[in-house]
Write a structure and sequence with these properties.
This protein is an alpha+beta fold. 12% of the residues lie in helices and 30% in strands.
Length: 115
């Protein structure tokens, strides 16, 4: 019986083995490529759309001749739009971004003496 008790004890202890399996933990490091983002800022410009289409556009307080999408510094500009037979439009305009100004000229009033 002594042998039987010793055998039972060995079987019990062998089931309680201290050996354990260790799962490998894999840590994956993901590195993202650094992308330099360049902010694109539209140039400050002015375009004047006129009616009639062949009206003359002038910027009175600068030297360069007006052209569509003229690049300007931020500021106030004295805009004149004229054409023979129409009333002249003249106004100060603040330009601080891409600006599109639409100007419709009114026909000039004819005086009684011209009729």
């Amino acid at each position: 019986m002594k042998n039987l008790s010793a055998l039972a004890a060995i079987l019990l202890l062998s089931g309680c083995s201290t050996t354990s399996t260790v799962d490998k933990v894999v840590t994956e490091v993901v590195t993202e490529a650094k992308v330099d983002v360049e902010e694109v800022v539209a140039p400050i410009s002015l375009t004047v759309i006129t009616t009639p289409a062949d009206a003359r556009v002038r910027i009175m307080n600068i030297n360069p001749v007006y052209q569509d999408a003229i690049v300007l510094k931020e500021g106030k500009y004295d805009i004149e739009v004229s054409r023979a037979g129409y009333q002249t439009y003249r106004k100060w305009v603040v330009v601080d971004k891409k600006t599109i100004l639409t100007v419709g000229l009114d026909e000039a009033l004819t005086s009684q003496s011209e009729q």
